[in-house]
UniProtKB/TrEMBL annotation:
SUPFAM superfamilies: HAD-like. One of its GO terms (biological process) is DNA repair. The keyword Ribosomal protein does not apply. This is HAD hydrolase, family IA, variant 1. InterPro entries: HAD-like_hydrolase_sf, HAD-like_sf, HAD-SF_hydro_IA, HAD_2, HAD_sf, PGP-like_dom2. Keywords: Hydrolase. GO terms for cellular component: cytosol. The keyword Hydrolase applies. Gene3D superfamilies: HAD superfamily/HAD-like (3.40.50.1000), Putative phosphatase, domain 2 (1.10.150.240). It comes from the Bacteria. GO terms for molecular function: phosphoglycolate phosphatase activity. It comes from Amygdalobacter nucleatus.
């Protein structure tokens, strides 16, 4: 038995290791300006807030200098095009996640993927990462026109209302303070994971209700 009626998951760094693809896309984009590459590990702190903010943060990280809003718009769109092509490069589920999703399905416990990644890219990443596992993702919310990014709770609140879920019965799982703040803003329970892109201190500072190190520990939180 579980008190949760819906489990909401972040994507990058939570249910799929997308770091190689993010670094590949980012460095291919930077190379077009004669810059880089940036070490793969550095991308852990440069992602999570949506593609446009990622581009802004990446430019600041490499000390690119000044640019106009018009240039940024074109550069951002170019990055998105590269990410669409390279977004599924070397993606794979984290250890124990396939088994966890299988148990959720067996328990008829619905789950949602809520990400700041472009929605079409997110669906492609999930399909490639979990190919052949029998795990599917019927509910995916990602970045699209008119959509507010996490930690804004608007899209999550709308989903809960549409499907008649009460906030106190929802657990949101993620690896960054963006996800912990989303949970707080939506008044749902927050669980941080340590196998992703950020460290315990960030999750603790963001007031995560739970912090887990393994998928087995996450399973215990869900079904406790």
């Amino acid at each position: 038995m579980t008190r949760y009626k819906l489990i909401s998951f972040d994507l990058d760094g939570t249910i799929v290791n997308t770091l190689p693809s993010l670094a590949r896309a980012g460095n291919m984009w930077l190379a077009e300006f004669g810059i880089g590459p940036v070490d793969e590990a550095d991308y852990k702190v440069l992602v999570g807030k949506g593609a446009k903010q990622h581009v802004i943060d990446l430019l600041a990280f490499v000390h690119y200098g000044s640019y106009t809003d018009e240039w940024l718009e074109q550069a951002w769109q170019r990055y998105v095009a590269i990410l669409k092509a390279e977004g599924s490069f070397a993606v794979q589920p984290y250890t124990g996640l396939v088994e966890l999703f299988q148990k959720l399905k067996q328990a008829n416990l619905p789950y949602l993927v809520y990400t700041n990644k472009k929605e079409l890219v997110a669906k492609s990443v999930l399909a490639n990462a979990y190919a052949g596992t029998g795990v599917d993702f019927p509910f995916v919310i990602g970045d699209k026109p008119g959509h507010k990014l996490k930690p804004d709770p608007t899209a999550l609140n709308a989903f809960l209302a549409e499907h008649n879920f009460k906030a106190q019965t929802v657990l949101h799982v993620g690896d960054t303070n963006v996800d912990m703040n989303l949970a707080k803003n939506a008044q749902v329970t927050a669980c941080g994971v340590l196998w992703g892109f950020r460290k315990r201190a960030e999750l603790e500072a963001a007031k995560a209700n739970f912090i887990v190190e393994t998928a087995k520990e996450l399973e215990q939180v869900i079904f406790s």
